[in-house]
Amino acid sequence: xxxxxxxxxxxxxARSTLTPQDDAAVRTVINKMQxxxxxxxxxxxxxxxxxxxxxxxxxxxxxxxxxxxxAEVHGxxxxxxxxxxxxxxxxxxxxxxAEACQSRGAVALEAHAKAKLGxxxxxxxxxxxxTLEPAYCLGNCALSPAVMIDGELYGRxxxxxxxxxxxxxxxxxxx
Length: 175
Ligand code: FES
Prior knowledge:
CATH architecture of the largest domain: 3-Layer(aba) Sandwich
Number of helices: 7
Number of strands: 4
Radius of gyration: 21 Å
CATH class of the largest domain: Alpha Beta
Distance between the termini: 78 Å
Largest sheet: 4 strands, mixed
Bound molecules: FE2/S2 (inorganic) cluster
Strand order of the largest sheet: 2-1-3-4
CATH superfamily of the largest domain: Glutaredoxin
């Protein structure tokens, strides 16, 4: 009599896409902060500061270190818009969308920036240079509309000035 073989499905864990350097950076942040009370948010900030985003494969490493589920960590990453889940471009541009800026030209500036870069918010230009992010008050309301490029704040940014700032950023990167 022929016996039927049962095939037991094996759950194969996908291999991490983190490079050894990125993996080391994630673990360094975790080691520094995991004993802090409420360590999850500071760790996510630290990872984003180090890598420019929170890679999906960093989530299981963080979850394990903090004894949380992956779903819990992923839930926090996706809840806060500040955390980026995709690798950003070389330069990150934050456009303020809060009230003071909106009343002084931010709407036109936003339309211009999106058309100029060919992206919507959270997108990266096709040449990989610029990622456009929204911000909700950059603390520069008196000089609205405000923009932050790679952490540097600029005020009274017209569409023309926006283009000049992009050129300046490109020149600095080339020099
Ligand atoms: S509202 Fe834009 S900087 Fe405050």
